[in-house]
Design brief:
The structure is a homohexamer. Chain A is about 40% helix and about 20% strand. Chain A is elongated, with a radius of gyration of 23 Å. The relative contact order of chain A is 0.09.
Chain lengths: ~325, ~325, ~325, ~325, ~325, ~325
């Protein structure tokens, strides 16, 4: 359990604390002796570190990717903080609290989940309510569903982000399905709930958010199709057409081939799912980005993926 | 005033009715005598017609684009209806009821306008309320605003379509601005109200919907900027930043250069305006399209602009 | 069972023969009486037809898409053959020989299948041999696998086309895996065998080749993933990594997002599968196209999808 | 030698005149007898024609693509002119005046050529003057250079069009090379003269403008490179760098890969050549297009390649 | 007023000089004491600097973006010049000569402006001459018009660049309008003069060239439309069609949507304006780029925006 | 002749060895004295180096791009090897063994060439055999053909790479031409042999692989066309159509305009050449890339040109 985080460290601090050992590289001084360059991280950021003594022993006992306990002192090098490390040893899994190392949603995960569950219980079609009942009673699924991020970098890129994103979309879908006549609310909300469940397996999110092998090779779209198919098979008499339409919503939710969907949305509900997903992702991505930027500036720095600066306006605004 | 419409005509009908003379071409029979091929239209569709007698007189008294009174009889040629025209004369402007010739919204225009007005009165910022007050008290503006279509072909392509589209977006914007924290509701709703006003001058919509010269040469985006600027100048003390942000929402509402916006959305409200516009346009475009298609088919025909067939599902659905 | 085909018909011929009733439209003569315009087809082409008598009875007894028996006489209208139909009645399923109506591979389906089977038995990994054993002993699968086309229009667009395409690719893959060192032959050949199996359900191919609802909504890529996953579950101890790599080959075989693959090929075998698929499809598409063209011309007509004319060279060549 | 052209024909005219037999198709009447549908053309347009009598004889004596003498009478069919042909025989090459069948520049070809020659004589570098001397004294080259079109459809698509386009560009290049300092006028003007000479072989333009086999297979860019290289080899001591820069201008003159240049312009003169070419082609393409359109309309019809309507303005303008 | 510029500084120099304080970052030495890393700039370039003493006082008295007076000594660090700063204080606006800090055109601004004015007086249409008369007598406009750059980075990115670019284009337009018949010279030259005037407000260019808020949010195209509209309103009887055509030239001058024009050029003069703009921008961009490159090299370094190396040729050339 | 290579150097080593002097930059210490920063390279990699003494003399005697003999000692700076250079002098051409400085194919060049020659002798058409006879008896050609790389960076980017790539393709073409019926084996294999010969002049590859001026300005496609044309001219009676088809294969072998071919493949053999080229280039590019990567990792680093990570799988695989 951590008590001090990287964002709080100041030159002069002495500490013994857990970090993720993000990078570890052996280097050589002019006199031929070796030393270690490290990058340590936790959920608040990263810090450079060096090991001058006991280099070989420390190098052999630890591996990059692990959580380690580090004893050392914070200094400064070229205008940046740098830790000089005296001791560093790996930490066993039980001693680790993953939320120390990964940013997490600020909202209550259980409350969000309960709201989502209630929405699923409001569906009119028995088979759909049964389908989500089957998901919610699958403990392994629920545990991962509450933890999974919605992305590695872009939006909701934190523990609980997928749940937060799914709930936000579901509430919007509920409102919008009333706004337009002729929308199949059951279908739209079910599509929202299922569209990204493949992300439970597309990412790893124990002490860092990254793609899993399966995520990189098979994509969350195909994983989601399989997860949905598997659960549908457990519901007897599930209508074939509904199954097909749900899978269509998963496969088409990116909107076009260029964005990763082999088929574009071909029902009005699939079109709406795509629009709601895009709005929620973009709004949240921009808000996440603005939050991290210098609050004194009217314009954000350049957003590489969205390819523009954003305007935050005069301070008084 | 029309009593019978093209969709109601059957072979054998005799009639004397107003139509738009959409096309008029002189042709020649094998014996060298000339005749006229016509296309007539009203808000329910088009019909082919021929003039065999009094050809020169009829040809010289009418011009394509005009509304004409036609006396004749409906027959059939190559499996399609065809009218044989005996007399055809131009109609003076006073005798014309434009709604006979152009499809119109099925909703009550005045009621829609009142709802929009009320939304504009709910804005918190005085200057914005004053701005819309100035628009609503400009009679020429309001008259056109209630009639303008939102497009020539794609979505809301009928009299009153712009008002219908704007109101639908404003109601959605209102709902969504509550859903997310940190949204400037005043700005978002004002942007929705203004984003397409350039369409009042981009189209002509007297007896047919078409682009105006100004629309083709200057685009509704630039026209809208000028109309907004002109009205803002009449409001003393209108904040410069707000003026700039409103114009930004107009110029960026298509979302990207490829889609016709010289600048992409750079505020969170402009991003949301673009998302809401896209959703409302697409949902309505697809519903308009599905309505026109054969209700017995599970799939629509190919939609050229959206490049796909849409699925309407099993009849029982 | 048909004895005469559309390509053999000549003006003056009388006949009573089966055709697919591809189109059926009611039309009206000048005198107000109705008649029927038809399009009839079989595996050799299409012919226009008209029904002048007993129109209502004939119209009510048949549906477009059905196979019908037609009695009538071949004439000529505007320079094209036209059949005047006297009688037309629907045909029951047992009387139909589907190969009369759909073009089919010219090669022996059973021989092709045996060769493919042998190739699958040459794989070194037990689990893969078991997997294909499971497919080959699934009769419903094999029946469809021997009949499915590889496309609706482009290449191998005929009964047995998928098998022909898969075998051609597998033989090439076998040769090429020897050419390069370090290729996992088992993986490459298995990927070839599985990459398009989703097409068994993407198309319907009873008396016409068209997309199925599932094909249009879910795509052969996602269907193929599910079919593979389902079979793999029946093989105990099937290695997880191999399963993932097979599914990767299915999902990536179009090469890029623009071409419909959510993930690009990320193993050397997936890259090769994509190359071999592209070569075999293109070579066959061009040969199919050249075959249909006028043999006296040095250049083919314009190929719309490949966007060019092809050169066939001087006759003597 | 023709005396009457298609644009002058009126129903009732009898004539015996040369035309290009552009299309010839055998057709059948209801009674089983055959007739011929023809399309005839000359430099003023096209006309449909039919042969009712002596069909077999006429069909066997003529081939599409040939110039024929036709005796017949002009009538009208479905509102379009149609010629009923009594006799039609092929014409020998000596009797043909190609300018009867292909549209040609309205300017004096010899005068244009002399002006171009003079410009080439104004170059400062001896080797370049020698190079063009070699071209101008190659009679086969000059004959074709004076006749070649600059395109099949787009701009300057008529006999002498390439010369007209090249001269217009050369005069512009001369003016512009004075406007900017630091431009190598010799290089720029030489590049203009050579950039399109591959078109002499890319097109055939005897009685119709079409692509040659070599044009379709090798492209005017590669042909132009070879023609330039061949001539340079005849000039002793021609500087290697200059040769390379001239070939660069030929290969890069379309400006980018997407437009057909394997390399983009990499010298300031090549950049200017590309700009001047684009301006001259577009201005002329739009003027050619406007000329053909209805002078009473303020807007042209839709230009498919340039993807827009053009505005010609109020008549009084 | 500056006497020494960054490009002239050498290690060992002592100086007290004005610079723009482009960057200012607080840093910490290993002993915990703080120091300042600076970047200073003037119109000849940039230099790194450090402050070791009086750090807090100096940091609090100055802000990045300001012009400051710096007292210090030039040294060298890691092979680059570095200034050690002893004192640094902000400078009041009156003491600043902006041309010290921003690169400027090498040509005489007043002479260029007079030439442009004369061209505008040569227009035939009274209303157009009046329009430009109104612009030239608007002092605030003229002051900014003489100073504005044409771009931030690409071409004419210096004080007076817009005037230089506009004049160059106007002279070219004058020449080219003679070259082609049927060009409306008045319209073309007026379009050239107006096409970029929105850049007066799109950029800020006091001591650095950057985008203004209005520039980023509204774009120079929409600003230019408003500036033109505002001036036209002051000319009584200005023809509506001419106003529309001028605005069309502004809005379409980038040539296509992808390049930022909501409408493509739809008159022959708008097409020519786009061509001339492209030629002048590219030629100047490449010349600016070549000038900055090592004169001893035959090839320039890679140009990121134009995506190529440029060839400057053998030295003797 | 080198005895030690950069990949073998360790801190503490003293040596006197040849290297390519890749970069040379003068720098200044704080005391005002100058020193040299160098980058040295050989076929195994690059090393940084510094010269502290005799700086001016050493700087004036050597030029970047040259091969030099260096005397010095290996140390370490910031965790990377760095050589401190005592003496450095240029080396005359005779003393240089180019294979010391450029990576080369691991296969026997002469054996590969013999295999290729035999393949060319297996062609059935006399004129084609004669053409390759002419190439093989052109010693300057053969010398360069055995040395040329196939690319600067992507695939086969080493001495002998072009020969290796050409041979691999030719063997594949041979196999594949048997697989499909109706392929002109002579044409396909000849096209393979010729398609990249322009690379002999597109690159320079004495002590470093780079583009030649001609390569950058004229492209290997146009160079290859000229080389082929020149050789064909020496074969009397070479069929024109064959010449045209060979040149077509050279010009179209990149497959599309976007990839640098002015014309796409328009014969079945040209289509196959393009497919085989793509497969061989990609397979080899990925294998080259995987080889350089850390063998302990399951995924490669990001491949910038192919825009993905590649999966190498579990170690045991």
């Amino acid at each position: 359990m951590k008590t001090r985080f990287i964002s709080q460290l100041r030159p002069g601090d002495s500490l013994a604390e857990q970090f993720v050992l993000t990078e570890k590289t052996m280097a050589h001084k002019k006199d031929g002796n070796s030393y270690l360059n490290l990058v340590l991280s936790d959920r608040t950021g990263r810090i450079d570190a060096v090991v001058w003594d006991n280099v070989d022993q420390i190098a052999s006992q630890t591996e990059s990717g692990q959580v380690v306990v580090v004893r050392g002192q914070v200094g400064s090098y070229r205008g940046k903080h740098q830790m000089v490390v005296k001791e560093m040893t790996a930490v066993s899994a039980q001693e680790i609290n993953p939320t120390d190392f990964l940013p997490a949603t600020e909202r209550d995960t259980d409350q969000m989940f309960e709201r989502l569950k209630k929405l699923s219980e409001s569906l009119q079609q028995d088979h759909l309510r049964d389908l989500f009942g089957a998901f919610w009673s699958d403990e392994a699924f629920v545990t991962r569903f509450k933890r999974a991020p919605a992305a590695k970098k872009m939006h909701h890129a934190y523990i609980g982000g997928l749940l937060e994103h799914t709930l936000s979309m579901a509430v919007l879908a509920d409102k919008i399905s009333e706004h337009y006549s002729g929308i199949d609310r059951d279908l739209l909300i079910s599509g929202v709930l299922l569209h990204d469940i493949g992300k439970l397996r597309e990412y790893t999110y124990d002490v860092a958010i990254d793609y899993s092998d399966e995520g990189r090779l098979v994509s969350h779209i195909a994983i989601g199709i399989q997860m949905t198919e598997d659960k549908i098979k457990t519901i007897s008499g599930f209508p074939e057409e509904t199954a097909m339409l749900l899978k269509h919503m998963i496969i088409s939710h990116h909107g076009s081939r260029e964005l990763g969907s082999p088929e574009p949305p071909k029902t009005i509900e699939a079109v709406m799912l795509n629009c709601i997903d895009e709005m929620d992702s973009r709004v949240q991505a921009i808000r996440d980005f603005m939050t991290k930027e210098d609050p004194g500036e009217m314009w954000t720095s350049y957003h590489r993926l969205l390819e523009r600066h954003f305007y935050r306006g005069r301070p008084a605004r």
